[in-house]
Amino acid sequence: MTLPPRRTFADREEVLGAVMLAPALAYVILLVGVPFVFAILLGFSNATAGSLSFGWAGLHNYRAILDDPIFLRALRNSVIVTVGSQVLVVILATAAAQVFRAAFHGKRFARFVLLLPWAVPVSLAAIAWTWIFDSTFSVINWTLKAVGLLHGWLYWLGDPALALLAIIIVQAWRIFPFATVIVLAGLSSIPQEIVEAAIVDGAGFWRRLLVVELPLLMPVVAVAVLFGVVYTATDLGVVYILTGGGPANTTHVLPTLAFQRGILGADLGQGAAIAVFLLPFLIVVAIGMLRLAHRTEVGGAQ
Amino acid sequence: MAGIEIRSLRKHFGDLHAVDGVDLSIRDGEFLVLLGSSGSGKTTLLRMIAGLERPTSGEIHIGDQRVDGDVPPRARGIAMVFQSYALYPHRTVFQNIAFPLEASRTPRKQIEEKVRWAAELFSITRYLDRYPRQLSGGERQRVALCRALVRDPKVFLLDEPLANLDAKLRNTARDDLKRFQRQIQTTTVYVTHDQVEAMGLGDRIVVMEHGKVRQVGTPQEVYEDPVDTFVATFVGQPPMNLLDAGDPSLPPRTLTGFRPEHFLPQSVFGAGEDLRTFRFAVRRVEYLGSDRYVYGSVAGTGAPDATIIAKLPATIALVIPEGETHDFAVPRRALRYFDATTGLRRTA
Description:
Chain A is mainly alpha-helical and 302 residues long.
């Protein structure tokens, strides 16, 4: 077989690259970029579902939602749920990673079980959790009572504070397997000799974890948390299925409120305004975390 | 300050006997080198002394404390320097050196003093605020030594600390290390596969192979009086020549060994010297500046094709043409005899 003597199409990287990139680019532009721009435009309009009229409303939608106690409550809930669940995730993931680093029987099976929450569809998992938190059949209440820790009765999804806690638990449960895998990968990238040096230098478990391992894990943890923040802050399913925003609109987060106002309430403009409200904050958070990850990047110290 | 006693120490990894019954007595203040190729068990032995590896059986005593079993590394009074130096990349040089002191809850002021003292000793004071990644290999090595030093250990354990330095730096680092150890007189166990390092640093050398100790002795003893053919060929570069000379005066199956630097043209020896002469068929001459290596074979022996090497210092200007046979000789006092079957030394 002779090779073509002249430069072929496959040799021309600049053309080939563009051609191969095009489908992915088209997909992102059409299905993410365009709707995204629409959403921003809608936020400044008085468009409604069921009508093709489109008029500029300026900042009217934003002024309206900022005066709306339900929106402010949803905004607060969004922040609480996101921060709360991520704190929980970091703690759980670090602990789980320590467990999975050790060698034990049934490790593969345990790892498979660990990853399940992440692989299960949100809606399915949320429905299971509604039973766990059910006002009559709550497994948690039953267990607490059986152990003798609970004397009254907890109405998980009927009490605003408990309902928020329930949402945080489910969000953390959903994200933490993924974070564990990331932290585990990060742990295995710490040179064994550094850990051993810390042991010989006399550092106990906590000093090793807090002073050596966690700082070295910062870049990966930052990435895991960044993913977690985005997943949680933009998630509609868990709250929608678990509480539907209730009781009395006290547990709405921004996505569920946007859905209720924009789609169910047909006020597309306001729905869009709610939906994109968090965008600037998320961008700032993302940039901050990536900076942090980059600054603490110490791998390849050679 | 403390010596180390090791008694029938074993470490098995499944079927692999990494350390296979080692008895060793390390004196207080001694610089002991564990020399062996990779897989000889020298690092595993060091890691067991450190407490990073648990012995399968046997005893380790540091000073008057028995430490095999449940004594953790931090309670053994040891400090260790790793091959990669294992500096904490996210901590400055100061914080690296201070780490063991923080771990032992030393008061702040004392930490400051000790770190400065150690940094001064290794002249790295001006790097204290830098991060390890901003330092050269030699500087990192000195930081690692500082970190080991500030703990006032009873024993220093060094795992090939010079292996990652370039050749030029290694010489000065070796000298620094030896001077430093003489000064503080702390018992030191040093692992290396480099025999030049072992000879240059060790008060005594432990030659290891397949998890067993082959010989313990001063560099001179190990070099001049190897106990078996393994040590004879492992120590020394080029290795000791071994051949079945077929001398009728020797018992059958005896190997005669001599160092290449003792194997010289007969004409360079004085008249009174008691010599064993050989007809040396020269194949090739390698010019190395300070020395010449002459490769060839010796006729009339058990294995006439075996390569014999002569090492001629530059002070012998004699022309040795390749392809010719010359009269070479070894002083009889430099001959060593080994049993061809067991490899062990014979007095004959």
